[in-house]
Amino acid sequence: MANESTAWAFKEWQVVCDALASGRQPILLRKGGIHEGREGFSFAHESFFLFPTRFHAQGDQVREGEVREMPEWQPGERIRITHHAEAEWAVTLTDWAQVSALEPMHIYSEGTVRDRFDWEGKGMAAGSIHVALVRVRELTEPWEFAYEPKFGGCRSWVQVPAPAEGWRERAKPVIDDGRFEEVARELRGLGING
C-alpha cells in the first residue's frame, strides 16, 4: 500500500503511454508480467500514474505511434511523469470475439493482444485478458524523480515518490466527458462494462 510520501504507478510502454495521453487509447489491456506475484496481475489500484517504460517497445508490437528505441532506464536517470489515470472499471474477458472488437480502441497489434490472451501462467488462465476503461488526466506540472532498480523488472505496479500536493485539482482530462461517455457506451454495446 502506498503511503503519503509515495504513489502507485502503472508501467506501460512509452508508445502506449503516448496513446493514452493523447486520448487515442481509452483502455488498458494487460495479462501480466513475470514478476506479478503468485496471484498474477490484477488492476489492483483504481488511481495511478502512467510510468513510461523503454524496454519491449518494439515496432511490431503496436499498429501506430512513434516507437522510440531507447535502452532500459538506468539508475539515476530522471523519470518524467506527465499523466494520471483512474480505472472506471476493470473486467477479465474470456471471449476472443469481444477482445478482437476492442481493436479500434487501442494501438497494440493483433498479434500482441492474441499472445497476451493465449498466455497462461502466474495464476492467469489461457484464453483471458484484463481490460480497464481508464480516464486519463494530464498533469499541469509534470514531476521527475530518479530511476531506481526497484522500478525495474516485468511487473505492472511500482511505488514512486508522490508528486507535490494539489496536482489532482489542476490535472486536465485528455478527452472530454461527452467523448468518454461515448467510449463507455461503445463498450457496453459490445457487452463489456464493469
Q: Explain this structure to me?
A:
The protein has one domain. It is α+β, with helices and mostly antiparallel strands and 194 residues long. It is globular. Strands 1, 2, 3, 4, 5, 6 and 7 form a seven-stranded mixed sheet that branches. It contains five helices and seven strands, in the order βαβββααββαβα.
Mean pLDDT: 87
Order of helices and strands: EHEEEHHEEHEH
In DSSP terms, counting alpha (H) and pi (I) runs of 4 or more, how many helices?
A: 5
User: Residue ranges: pLDDT <50 for 5 or more in a row?
Assistant: none
Helix content: 10-25%
Indicate the structural class. Answer: alpha+beta
Secondary structure: number of strands: 7
Tell me the β content.
Answer: 25-35%
Principal-axes geometry comes out as globular
Intertermini distance: 23 Å
**Main sheet attributes: strand count, strand direction, barrel closure:** 7 strands, mixed
Q: Radius of gyration from the CA trace?
A: 16 Å
What count of structural domains? Answer: 1
What is this structure's SSE topology?
Layout (H helix, E strand, L loop, with lengths): L5 E8 H9 L4 E4 L16 E7 L24 E16 L2 H6 L8 H9 L10 E18 L10 E5 L5 H4 L1 E2 L3 H13 L5
Parallel strand pairs: 1-3
Antiparallel strand pairs: 1-6, 2-5, 3-4, 4-5, 5-7
